[in-house]
Amino acid sequence: MSEGQRQKAKEEAVLLALQNNLALIRCDLEIWGMQKDGLAIFIAKSEDYDHLWEEALWALKNRFKKQ
Fold this sequence. Notes:
The protein has 67 residues and is an alpha+beta fold. The protein has a single domain, classed as Rec A Protein, domain 2 (2-Layer Sandwich), CATH 3.30.250. It has two helices and three strands, in the order H-E-E-E-H. Strands 1-2-3 form a three-stranded antiparallel β-sheet. Helix 1 (3-19) runs parallel beside helix 2. 18% of the residues are buried.
């Protein structure tokens, strides 16, 4: 995956999270969401950085399409 593709996935994930009142936090190869009340929600984990944001974006899309 190219740097441009990673950046695009990251930007889409951040925007989707913000639109749903969630801040994203990266901790090593995990992405967590932080709600306004301080509750942390696990979003995604990857085996490598190349796919981390793509997997987070996929998880966020699935989480928010059900609401």
